[in-house]
Amino acid sequence: MSYIDSNIFIYPIIYDPASVREALQAKNFLRKIALGEIEAYASPATWDEVVWVVRKVLGIDSSLNQGRKLLSFPNLKILPVKRTTVLRAQDLMEKYELKPRDALHAAIALENKITTIVSYNEDFDKLREIKRIEPLE
């Protein structure tokens, strides 16, 4: 059971998997989720970040398309964000000096008893409550 950070969805969209190792790893990892081989979770914060980054890099049409794809991604469960989640994110920001969105991702995972996050973002390594892993080849 893993929480999937936004960059795992973003890399294969904005980078060429033939040229960027992380994009290829992420693409293969996402394929495993789609096939049901990995129990995967994300959140509205994931959708927000993916749509925002894709919009900045590739434009609005691509961001709308990618947002729709994320919302219908096979075997990906979208977790809710509650007031308690945001309060926990605030605590994590203060404790670990995280950026707000990273703190929100971590809080969502922890509120749902998920202690593994799949991400290329090394900022998650600061957290004692969560283990960050990268997708394997």
Report what the structure shows:
- With 137 residues, the protein is α/β, with parallel strands linked by helices.
- The protein has one domain: 5'-nuclease (Rossmann fold, 3-Layer(aba) Sandwich), CATH 3.40.50.
- Helix content is 55%, strand content 11%.
- It has a 5-stranded parallel sheet with strand order 3-2-1-4-5.
Task: Show the helix and strand layout.
Blueprint: E1 2-4, H1 6-14, H2 21-34, E2 40-42, H3 44-58, H4 60-71, E3 76-78, H5 83-96, H6 100-111, E4 116-118, E5 131-133
Parallel strand pairs: 1-2, 1-4, 2-3, 4-5
Helix pairs in contact: 1-2, 1-3, 3-4, 5-6
- Shape, principal axes of CA atoms: globular
CATH class designation = Alpha Beta
The end-to-end span amounts to 19 Å
Mean pLDDT: 97
Percent of residues in helices comes to 55-70%
CATH homologous superfamily grouping: 5'-nuclease
Tally of structural domains: 1
Structure at a glance:
55% of the residues lie in helices and 11% in strands. It is an alpha/beta fold and 137 residues long. The relative contact order is 0.20.
What distinguishing features does this structure have?
5 strands; globular; five-stranded parallel sheet; alpha/beta; Rossmann fold; 137 residues
